[in-house]
Amino acid sequence: MSRVPMTVAGELALRKELDYLKTEKRPRIIKDIATAREHGDLKENAEYHAAREEQSFTEGRIQELESKLSNAQVIDVKDIPYSEKVIFGTTVHLINCDTDEEVCYKIVGDDEADIKELKISFNSPIAKGLIGKLEGEIATIQTPKGIVEFEIDKVEHI
Fold it and tell me: Which of 26, 76, 135, 141 is disulfide-compatible with 129, CB 3.0–4.6 A?
């Protein structure tokens, strides 16, 4: 499997979730299963089956997180010399050329993307249209509503 880019904050969030699952949730589930077993017949024990199902989901998520972290290429944009170029990890201030509306996006990894926090995946159409461009350039981006042109107002390494 190839390396997957991730910001420092993204890696920290995944490690925090993994730690929680391993140190808090997994032991609680094991305890719940033991308690449910004490109630007798396992065939008709809803608590036991619910705990086993939760255990299965949790173990799957632990494996998924461990895999993602082992394949992560953590990129700290603060360590990259500033060049006015849009790259992975930068925060980009844009101006819609038609409406003069301003918007700001941070380009992050797939697992970190959250449009409500204005974090977009480097694989998104907007990010693909921005990456490689310089401050002051116009980026033409195909969106579901049609082609939109954005002027790159500012690029930040934060």
Answer: 141
What whole-number distance in Å separates Cα of residue 63 and Cα of residue 68?
9
pTM of the model: 0.84
Q: How confident is the model over 58-91, as pLDDT tens digits?
A: 999 999 999 999 999 999 999 999 999 999 999 9
Q: Is the dihedral of CA 79, 83, 87, 92 positive or negative?
A: positive
Element (H, E) at 91: strand 91-96
Q: What three-state secondary structure class fits 98?
A: coil
DSSP, res 24: I
